[in-house]
Amino acid sequence: MELAVTALGAAGDGLARMPDGGPCFVPRSLPGETLAVRDLGKRGGGRLAEPEAVLRASPDRVEPPCPHFAACGGCALQHWADVPYAEWKHGKLVEALSRAGFAEVPVAPLVRTPPRARRRADLALRRRPDGRVALGFHARVGRTVLDLQTCEVLDPRLVSLFGPLRDLLRGLPALRREGSAVVNLLDTGPDLLLRTDGALDAPARAKLAAFAAAHGVPRVAWALGDRAPEVAAQHGPAAIRFGGAAVHPPPGAFLQASPAGEAATREAVLAGLPERLPGRAAIAELHAGVGTLSFALAERARVNAYEASVGAVGALEAAAGRAGARIKAVRRDLVRQPLLPAELKPFAAVVLDPPFGGAPEQVPLLARGRVPRVVYVSCNPAALAQDAKTLKGAGYRVVSAVPVDQFLWSPHLEAVVAFAL
Asked: What superkingdom heads the lineage (predicted)?
């Protein structure tokens, strides 16, 4: 059937109407286009259709730079010209704040991050019947693992490991059917965490050590399924620097997607703080991770950094001790045990960088605690809109809003929004 696309949805798919008037999501399409599509079935409250031919193309359609784009589930918008793409990304933050009740807030221009700069990859692994291993991201439809040969988003130093890693895994009995490989590009080199569905024996550990030595991988960690990882091979320090501090993160630690995105986020957070903080002021940093923002914040005031991960807290605490930074790392699951209004009272500002679902447990308590300044780092405009609405109801105003295109060619958007009473 033929469908006319009228808009772009939150996930980056084109929106069209079925003959019965119901909504239909069409990946890899653009507003104003007419396409021949094949109905794939239900998706949420509508239908999902596979485009088979573009009958009338948008003038904003461009050739995708990656040969995997049509099948890969990683990128959604490589076929869109840069200017309208950037306007759409900027508009996602404008729309989120408007839904929260901040309709007239000026939003800063979109901060861009370049292609081939992402330093973290979470790769799926699947052994084929012939013994070879597919390594890459999941396909756009279904659970197929797309065997990647290249990637226009990832740093080339990560892509260069694809081939050697496939060769290693083919001869690794610990990978029986499926697993994953998380690679973080640290300042000391690629840091690899393998998760497999079989046990790792002594010969396999020797293979991992040889792989690490041959390919400049300072540390290879391994875990059986979802169990806690252990270090299987290490040839040197696995470290990343935040300011003047060297942090040794645990295997598979969360990092900002790219150095440029990290720098933009950090600058926006610092700019969102009050210009002057009292000499004995303290900042509460919630969901601090391994200290991406902590050390910069500690240049402005004392920091209580709260984080649920034992490994992340340990890494941050050790790095702060070595650097003499004004950081107190505190292990706390903020979803189950958010900070209460009385606990928030000593802080002049709160910086929070919650997970994708936002901070619905914490934000109402921030509002009740009347924290003078809240700087919210978001990776999900929908969750931001909900939490910002709570702050709006408590009398907060937006003093700055910065969108950061941390996740190039995806529908996701990083944003830093500062709220004040």
From this structure: Bacteria
